């Protein structure tokens, strides 16, 4: 079996929040995204399900 490669992706949450002043809210295709220029770990997405 192959082990999956570690990929840093978005946190999937029912309610997303801005975590710092580098975060920005983006609405695309009925989903709300939080993208962060300062800390990539702050990336979040809401409304996937």
UniProtKB/TrEMBL annotation:
<comment type="similarity">
    <text>Belongs to the bacterial ribosomal protein bL36 family.</text>
</comment>
<dbReference type="InterPro" id="IPR000473">
    <property type="entry name" value="Ribosomal_bL36"/>
</dbReference>
<keyword id="KW-0689">Ribosomal protein</keyword>
<dbReference type="GO" id="GO:0005840">
    <property type="term" value="C:ribosome"/>
</dbReference>
<dbReference type="GO" id="GO:0006412">
    <property type="term" value="P:translation"/>
</dbReference>
<dbReference type="Pfam" id="PF00444">
    <property type="entry name" value="Ribosomal_L36"/>
</dbReference>
<dbReference type="InterPro" id="IPR052010">
    <property type="entry name" value="Ribosomal_LSU_bL36"/>
</dbReference>
<dbReference type="GO" id="GO:1990904">
    <property type="term" value="C:ribonucleoprotein complex"/>
</dbReference>
<dbReference type="InterPro" id="IPR035977">
    <property type="entry name" value="Ribosomal_bL36_sp"/>
</dbReference>
<dbReference type="GO" id="GO:0003735">
    <property type="term" value="F:structural constituent of ribosome"/>
</dbReference>
<protein>
    <recommendedName>
        <fullName>Ribosomal protein</fullName>
    </recommendedName>
</protein>
<keyword id="KW-0687">Ribonucleoprotein</keyword>
């Amino acid at each position: 079996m192959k082990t999956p490669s570690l990929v840093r992706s978005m946190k999937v949450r029912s309610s997303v929040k801005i975590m710092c002043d580098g975060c920005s809210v983006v609405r695309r295709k009925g989903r709300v995204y939080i993208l962060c220029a300062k800390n990539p770990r702050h990336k979040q997405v809401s409304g996937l399900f």
